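Checklist before submission:
- one chain only
- standard amino acids only
- sequence pasted in full

Submission:
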Amino acid sequence: MYLEIELVIVFSSFVEILHHKIMSNKIISLFNIKHPIIQGGMIWNSGWKLASAVSNNGGLGLIGAGSMYPEVFREHIQKCKKATNNPFGVNLPMIYPQMDELIQIILDEKIKIVFTSAGNPKKYTSFFQEKGIKVVHVIPGVKFALKAQEAGVDAVVAEGFEAGGHNGRDETTTLCLIPMVKKAINIPLIAAGGIGTGKGMLAAMILGADGVQMGSRFVASEEASSHINFKNEVVKAKDGATQLTLKDVTPVRLIKNKFFKEINEAIIKGATPEQQQEILGRGRAKRGMFEGKLDEGELEIGQVAGLIDTVEPVSKIIENIMVEYQQEIKNINTSKYNF
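Returned file contents:
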């Protein structure tokens, strides 16, 4: 009996803490959005249609600059402005060869939110912030989170090993990464990697995240700029359908298609990084995700693809996530679960 009373007290306290976290959410306040959901700024998937749809439905949409020439990037920003009155941002890989041009476009178009990745956050953080731009940096581990905090970023995205596309080498899963990063930093924390449902979102929040970033779930949306062949391949994917490869070149999680098998066999046989790069060539991601050439292209997607069963409009995706998220909070509050 005493144990039951203690459990009731613990669960009541937990629900109160969770409710307070939702009502005073740092990510909602930071970006002035309705839901603490950020759409990943994925190459060949995250154009203006997807970004504006996410923003119009209460999340934060991001335009993925990594696959855009400067003039295309500007066009997508301008179209996104016309399509939404809500906040949206851009994702800026710092290894992009024409960074100066992209940055000038960001300033010209008065973008107020920039997510940076694949580089040192010190390089541009203070510059952007002096222009009134909020800066968020994507990191794969604790030491990088500390460096980002030291650089003065407004928040970090901690991306676990489950995530699609380019990934960290340490293979730290989201379940372990989020509490470790939370323990180390005092700035807002966004969880990414393996999150595509309301339950997954709640789990990330319980682990210490203030919000979540979802990429794969939004790939399988009507508004994503990726090819329908790729979207359908994501829907077909089951557990074990993806794997991290090319660790000696640039770690990337891919669906196991013909190209994946070719590069993986070469690695097993001892191909050097130079030989792997030669097989990779140029334009693999575009061929797979944007042009829909499923055999010869890179199909970048996360492990959560195994939970994605349909291609839906963004409005339905976000609605489903939030309904499930709120329902799971109620389930905890009413002690539905048998602990």
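Reviewer check: The chain has 15 helices and eleven strands.
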